[in-house]
Design a protein that fits this description.
6 domains; elongated; Choice-of-anchor L domain-containing protein; Choice_anch_L; Ig-like_fold; T9SS_type_B
């Protein structure tokens, strides 16, 4: 525990009487180097600094670049401490209304050790505090804030890399190399303006977690910005002599002063009793594990252990066996006036309880090969009954695999495969957990069907036998193998087999019925006689057409028809009936042979009367256009003109049909 010497306490108390109500820090240049180090920075009977030396600016009026600061009653994080500046410390007092810009043209040099530590060659205005000490424990630490005028709220782009340098250099006596303790936590990056900076300016932020603020005028110091409270720390060897050198300097020129504030009483000699064992760092204690912590120190006269701030009765030995989670602290006494401490935080990994380690899916695609997709995130959430939210569970194909499986995993072994769950962010506490994946299949083929439903009839839909359950999408649902429907639509049935895998079959029911023939459009007296069957729009079905009742076609047009009478059959493809109708194809004979043998003796057109065309007028010409014969009511021509037989030749004709159509052509008279 820290002990404040009576003389120093009186001085600080006296100063505090005048600063309790102040808004800004105050500085005092009258403290001796020994008071600043032993009574302000260290302030403990456990150690005394030796060979203390301050070096700073030699200002004409005797002002100093180092001294004591008091921040009692202000918003500044430290109550008091030591300030080291690259200018006059009197100019560090707030508010932040002027530019601290001291030390020009006075031969105030930089520091070679700082240059070497930071890789610089152009420092100026160095202020140095250095001393020797002998640590009792194996760890030292002290708190500091870096403030600078170079934290500009409205910089130009070329000012973003301006920064002053400082270092806290530590070495054991006899060694030649310093270790710099003034680094960004958990890195080797020196703390400077351009390595710890917040957002809000054109300059890029850097490690902004450790930046405090850009200051307006209402601030306890006269600096434009500062870091948060940072801790410089190092492991040391108890009983060895160490030299520490705290140095700050301007880089490049004397402009834009900076300062280091060292927290009063923050130079601590502690004991490192081991790394924290935390979930966040992946090294908690395993369930049931006992950790023996050894705080043994040479010269110690007593020990007392605490858990979560409470004394552990009887725990007064140098070692202690930890069996439960908590914040542990040990006080180590050296006589009656000196005490150091060590601490360690312990967390325990949760003992995991298996909830379910076998998972079954059905093969979801049409290829029932026993492989399907498993969602490993879903399995992760179901695997344990008590998985903490910060545990990272990954899955691996074998216990020796180092490549985690993707979240959506398709089993590589058909039907059954074992994979392994591993807690990957906690080391040493858990072995792999076997996870069994099973894939069931639905091997029966269920083909969709399209069926016709005839008018005024019903239809039985049958999903097939031998399944465990059925569910139809009717309203309300039906759960039988067969259902009866009397209207068109899509009917779906979900069929589940005995291993709880399902398939869905769709019955598309199309209302249908026998056709109504609306019209037969005939194109005859041509090189390609055709008949097109027109179905009434009110007909519901899908139809096919035939002229013999056996051979059907999808087209409703028949081509290349010879003259004669036909019957067309129209059949509903879904079996809802057949209708028929007769029609005639008319055509003229291409030749006739008037030789009185009883065959083709007369040229005439058959069946005109059956098409109500008997009043049509037929005019016959010879090849020279001479009118030979005009026929009405289709009595025919016997091949004579004025009772004289005409010779074999081609003859031409015109038919003026009573339906308005005119047909022209020619035929041969053959004798």
């Amino acid at each position: 525990m820290m002990r404040i010497k009576n003389t120093f306490f009186f001085i600080v108390f006296w100063c505090g009487l005048f600063s309790n109500y102040a808004q800004n820090i105050s500085v005092d240049e009258s403290f001796s180097a020994e008071d600043l180090v032993n009574n302000v920075l260290i302030n403990s009977s456990c150690a005394t600094a030796l060979n203390i030396n301050f070096l700073g600016g030699n200002f004409a009026n005797g002002e100093k670049s180092f001294g004591f600061f008091d921040a009692t009653g202000t918003s500044f994080p430290f109550q008091n401490g030591i300030i080291l500046s690259t200018g006059k410390i009197i100019n560090a007092e707030g508010p932040n209304t002027s530019l601290s810009d001291d030390g020009g043209n006075m031969g105030w040099d930089g520091d070679p050790d700082l240059n070497q530590a930071l890789g610089l060659n152009n420092t100026f205005n160095a202020t140095v505090l250095e001393f020797d000490f002998i640590p009792l424990g194996n760890k030292i630490s002290f708190d500091y804030i870096f403030s600078s005028e170079q934290y500009l709220t409205n910089p130009s782009s070329n000012q973003c890399n301006y920064t002053d340098g400082f270092a806290f250099l530590l070495r054991r006596n006899g060694e030649t190399t310093y270790q710099n303790l003034a680094v960004v936590p958990n890195t080797t990056i020196p703390v400077k303006v351009n390595t710890v900076r917040g957002t809000g300016t054109i300059c890029p932020p850097a490690n902004e977690t450790y930046f405090d603020a850009f200051n307006d005028t209402n601030h306890p110091t006269n600096f434009n910005g500062q870091t948060k409270v940072l801790t410089a720390q190092s492991n040391v060897i108890p009983g060895e002599t160490y030299h520490i050198k705290l140095v700050i300097a301007d880089e490049g020129n004397y402009r834009f002063d900076s300062a280091i504030f060292l927290g009063g009483g923050s130079f601590n000699f502690g004991i490192d009793i081991g790394d924290d064992r935390l979930m966040a760092t992946g090294n908690p204690l395993c369930p049931g594990e006992i950790l023996t912590v050894d705080a043994s120190q040479v010269g110690a006269t007593g020990y007392q252990w605490y858990q979560d701030g409470n004394v552990i009765p009887g725990a007064t030995n140098a070692t202690f066996n930890i069996t439960s989670a908590g914040d542990y602290l040990v006080e180590i006494n050296y006589g009656t006036t000196c005490q150091t401490t060590g601490s360690i935080k312990i967390e325990y990994a949760e003992p995991l309880v298996i909830n379910q380690n076998s998972f079954t899916e059905c093969d979801a695609d049409t290829n029932q090969d026993g492989k399907t997709v498993f969602n490993l995130d879903t399995i992760r959430n179901q695997l344990f009954t008590n998985l903490p939210s910060n545990y990272v569970v990954s899955f691996f194909e074998t216990p020796t695999s180092t490549t985690a499986l993707p979240t959506t995993f398709i089993n590589t072994n058909p039907n059954f495969q074992t994979i392994y769950a591993r807690i990957t962010n906690i080391q040493g506490c858990y072995s792999d957990y076997a996870v069994n994946l099973r894939v069931n299949t639905f091997d029966d083929i269920l083909a969709d069907e399209t069926l016709g439903l005839c008018e005024n009839e019903s239809l039985i839909l049958n999903a097939g036998s031998g399944f465990a359950s059925y569910q139809w999408n009717t309203n309300p649902p039906q759960f039988t193998q067969q259902i009866t429907v009397n209207s068109g639509g899509n009917y779906q049935v979900t069929v589940t087999n005995d291993v709880n895998c399902s398939k869905t079959k769709t019955f598309t029911i199309e209302p249908s019925g026998a056709a109504t023939i609306e019209e037969i459009i005939i194109n005859d007296f041509s090189d390609n006689n055709t008949a097109t069957i027109q179905i009434a729009a009110s007909s519901l079905g899908n139809y096919e057409f035939s002229l013999d009742g056996n051979n059907y076609q999808n087209s409703n047009t028949f081509s290349n028809l010879t003259a004669g009478e036909y019957t067309v059959y129209v059949q509903d493809k879904k079996g809802c009936g057949i209708v028929s109708e007769n029609f005639l194809i008319l055509d003229y004979p291409k030749f006739f042979t008037p030789n009185n043998d009883g065959y083709n003796d007369i040229w005439f057109i058959k069946n005109l009367e059956r098409r109500n065309l008997e009043e049509s007028i037929i005019t016959i010409f010879d090849r020279y256009g001479k009118l030979i014969k005009q026929i009405t009511r289709n009595e025919g021509w016997n091949g004579t003109f004025n009772n004289e037989s005409l010779p074999s030749s081609d003859y031409w004709f015109t038919i003026e049909l009573t339906n308005g159509k005119t047909v022209k052509g020619h035929f041969s008279l053959i004798r």
